[in-house]
Amino acid sequence: MKPPKPPLISIIVPTLNEEKYIRLLITSIKQQRSANFEILIVDGGSRDKTLEIAKKDGAKVFKFPGYGEFISRNIGAKEAEGKYLLFTCADIMFPEDLLQKITEEFRKNPMLIALTGPGHPYDAPVFGKVEYVIYNAVRFILAKMPKPLKRFSTSTNFLVVRKDYFEKTGGFAVNDINADGLMGRTLLNMGEVKFSWRTCFYLSARRMKKMGFWNFNKHYLYAFENIFFGLSNTPLLNAIKGLSKRKHGKMHEAT
Prior knowledge:
By secondary structure, the protein is α/β, with parallel strands linked by helices. The chain has one domain: Spore Coat Polysaccharide Biosynthesis Protein SpsA, Chain A, CATH 3.90.550.10. The chain has helices at 22-30, 50-56, 69-79, 98-108, 126-144, 163-169, 179-190, 206-211, 213-219, 235-253; strands spanning 9-15, 37-43, 60-63, 84-88, 92-93, 112-116, 119-121, 158-162, 192-195, 201-203. The model has no long low-confidence stretch (mean pLDDT 94).
């Protein structure tokens, strides 16, 4: 009897009290046309039914109470068996052909080391949906620019990285609130990266609805660092990151 083939794609999800969303994500993954994947849940100490649901639905579960998002993602990457690491969040849903399209993108271009795509907020108000259209268009255009103008604006809502290259980066910076954006910059300097309209996904606008449109945008002002590299490590950006990090911590404490 042949041993089972290792997964091609490892899907890594950090969680904390996500029982409302996690089943929607896992269901959308299990409905994929490509079945060669694994799901790794790295939990920061949920007090609800998140882990019960994840285990029942066949995910590999790792529990590290008190651990934050980015150290959890690094742990998931270390435990992953797949050639490609797909970083996502509990409140995301995948179209049924997403994993197939990811595989096609990497097969078409053997030099590709990382991939991202547009997120569509399925429950956002109209102005929120319009904002995401503009945001995705800007990311696409910047990803098409020649160097040194080229940008790879990334979010761990959806980021696929070849595992061997992720290991070369040293992982996410665990103490930086913009660690996912900084990872995009690192990958851009390491090899070929792509923003693909084909690999789209759906995300919840729960934070926008909870915080309000203007407060939501103020919270993520630090993401301008992903476009304007010169902002990094300036007093202004560090102050913005500090405020956003404290706000982010309070949101998780209230979960």
